[in-house]
Amino acid sequence: MPLLIFLTLRGAHLRAQKGKEPSLSSLILTSATLSIKGGDFTFFASRLGLTSVTSHIVKGSIDYSRAFLALTSYLNYIPSPSTMERFKEEMSEELKIFLEFTGGKALVLFNSRERMEYSYNLCSPYLETTGIPVYCQMPGISKRTLQKEFADNKNSVLMGLKSFWEGIDVPGESLSFVIMEKLPFPFVFDPLYRARREQFAIDPSMGHEFEDYIFPLMAIRFKQGFGRLLRRDDDRGAVLLLDRRLHRKSYKYDLMASLPGYTRDEASEMDRKSLYLKIADFLPGLIEL
Fold first, then answer.
1. Please, which of 6, 200, 227, 272 could form a disulfide with 30 given CB 3.0 to 4.6 Å?
2. Do 183 and 246 contact (CB within 8 A), yes or no?
3. Paired sense of beta strands 157-160 and 26-31, if any
4. Is residue 14 over pLDDT 80?
5. Element housing 277 (H / E)
6. Alpha-carbon distances, residue 285 vs 6, 15, 102, 236, 254 (angstroms)
7. pLDDT digits (tens, 9 = 90+) for 69-98
8. To 10 degrees, what angle do helices 113-129 and 84-102 make?
9. How many CB atoms lie within 10 A of CB 144?
């Protein structure tokens, strides 16, 4: 775990059975993604119904300046309902160009199966002619099998959905790039998500729906995706977000502050050629120009 975050809950009401006294006086919870906005544990604690916690962030050994963060802004279309089809087409073409440039070595994270399969069908035939195999999270293929094949072939690409935003561990050159197609907001038709939104609508004491629920969910998922890149001390690479909406959102810097660290060159994000060259300069020996 590259970053250790833990909370100690003192005097927690923990009961194995109703009516029995608690057998524990404290509980330690650890994770790399419990906090957002540079160390705020409020959302996590509220989801557990906790009102009093002691929190600490312990920095790990990984140097996150070795992760290059690119918030691309040169694509023409955004993933909004009115332009989603155009975004899907442009995003897929961008993937094809970038993945050929890097020679694979990439995990591509999607929020939609339909867009993932569209990108796979567009990119895979072309990339495979250049010697870059593309693996995709299709029904009936186990996550473990995909991860092993991807890890064993350092010039391959793996495309995945929700379960690949967390829990996948591929250290080394095979996973040198993480690409997120869009900001990972929760699925609006999920029953739990809809029920929570209704709670915010009827109970003002819960806070603001977006700031106190929707944004934290998205920030944690974004942080999880970012965390796939550096898994050991000598790892290096780049994380790309292809959703340019972030540049005009008020929560942009709260999202960036949720990350454990990164290197960024904002000027290069305006142009594909400039960004690609900056990434190649940042990762000498990893990309053949």
1. 6
2. yes
3. unpaired
4. no
5. helix 272-282
6. 37, 56, 11, 11, 33
7. 999 999 999 999 999 999 999 999 999 999
8. 40
9. 9
Within a domain: residue 288?
no
- Number of domains, the chain: 2
Is 133 within the bounds of a domain?
yes
Task: Provide the domain limits for residue 122.
Answer: 64-282
User: Is residue 138 assigned to a domain?
Assistant: yes
On whether residue 287 sits in a domain, the answer given is no
**Same domain assignment for residues 24 and 69:** no
* Alpha carbon distances (Å) from 113 to 30, 92, 116: 31, 13, 5
Taking CA atoms, 13 is separated from 6, 26, 50, 52, in Å, by 18, 9, 10, 12
Report the amino acid identity of residue 170. Answer: V
Q: For residue 96, give the 3-state DSSP assignment.
A: helix
Q: Are residues 27 and 75 in the same domain?
A: no
The average pLDDT across 173-197 equals 88
